Input
Amino acid sequence: MKMLKTLRVRFALWLTLLILAFLAIFSFGVHFSLSRSLYTGVDETLVLSAEQIIPSLQEEDGSILMPPLDANAPDLIEFDPITQRGITIVILSQNGYILQAAGTHSLFSLSDSLPPTQPEFQTIPEAAEIDRIRVYSLPIVENDQILGWVQTMQSLGTTEESLDKLRTLLVTGSAILSLLAGFAGYFLATRALAPIDKITNTAHRISIEDLSARLNLPDTGDEVSRLANTFDEMLERIESGFTRERQFTADASHELRTPLTAMQTILQFTREGERSLPEYRLALDDLAEEADRLQALVEDLLHLARGEGGLELYKEEIDLSLLLDDVADSLRALAEKKGFALKTNLPPSLIIFGDTDQLIRLIVNLLDNAIKYTQEGSVNISAHNEEDHSIIEVADTGIGIQTEHLPHIFERFYRVEASRSSQGVGLGLSIAEQIVLAHGGKLRVTSVSGKGTKFTVFLPNPPE
Ligand code: ADP
Output
């Protein structure tokens, strides 16, 4: 029963049955048409032979002369050409007596009753030692009067023997061919399904601990090979997803630990002895700063986690020029403190459709980075409308990003080595990208190391 469940056995069985059905139909057809033509052939020969006899009984004036009922009388008719074809001929008198007969003697007197008054075929069933016999009775008629009959008959033995042989041949041939087809089907299915077994075994081996197993089947381009490739690609994606998640958890724990450790150190140091009021104040300020860092980090992590399945936006009509101007104003002091200017180049009004809080967060992240990684020159923020997009550009003249780092800066916790000492943890750009994507836009970066960086945000315009 378990065997029947395997695809290869079912395939082989179906193939056997199918071929058997086809061969059965084919054999039936062959047998039917051959037996029909053989039996019709016999009938036609009997009719022709019987009709051949009648003229030899006719006198010159057309009247019929029946042979006399006398055993010693010479035969009127020459039968040889007909009997040579295996046909037995009997000429019966009006009363059913045999007047003349030629051929196989055992067939001479077959029936007691008189033959029918119309030309007719009869089949005499098989009897001891005698095969079935086909008989054709043709009445000899003159002036509407039956003078007697010509009967031609032939044994159906040879015909039926040939048909018997044909039947045996067809039945055994069909059975053998179907079995062979079944075996061939089983063999082919086993070969074709071998990779499936491999897939099953690999799937068994895979676990969360080890996602590295791959099928690596040769690419033959067939269905199974496509399945195997898709399976490998899926494993690749799952594995890299898991690796990313693991990395993220490790990085997040590490980053959370830094401010916590700092807080513990401050507390430990402060509690070790009696401290003066200014010392307590300083400790509290430090604690507050670390708590702020912790809060900012937790907020960033929450933001990213919430945005995992697509950030939820509260969209409204916003004047982007106004929003950018406000954010620039609030951060200008930071730039000025470092000795350079934060410049804006904005149209009087630029209406877009978006989530105000998220867009503020996006611009703050970009501007904050620009100010953080710039020592001299300026930071510029500009916006304009282009076809169906509004474009925001945040450009700085800072340290720039080396080309090899550019593809990674939007990854979570990714920081360029040079900026390791800075305050960021490498989440700012991931969040920025998440916000832009949630708005259906794109975030692009171009940078020349040592010269400066430009981030470009493309936001789709509100529908008309
Ligand atoms: P971080 O919190 O470290 O700033 P981000 O995700 O905002 O993290 O940025 C990732 C990295 O990209 C930063 O560590 C920094 O090296 C680089 N980066 C981002 N913005 C700039 C910029 N304007 N100029 C130079 N480097 C930048």
User: Anything to note?
Assistant: The chain has a mean pLDDT of 88. The first strand starts at residue 88 and ends at 93. Residues 369-370, 373, 396, 398-401, 409, 414-416, 419, 424-430, 453 surround adenosine-5'-diphosphate (CB under 6 Å).
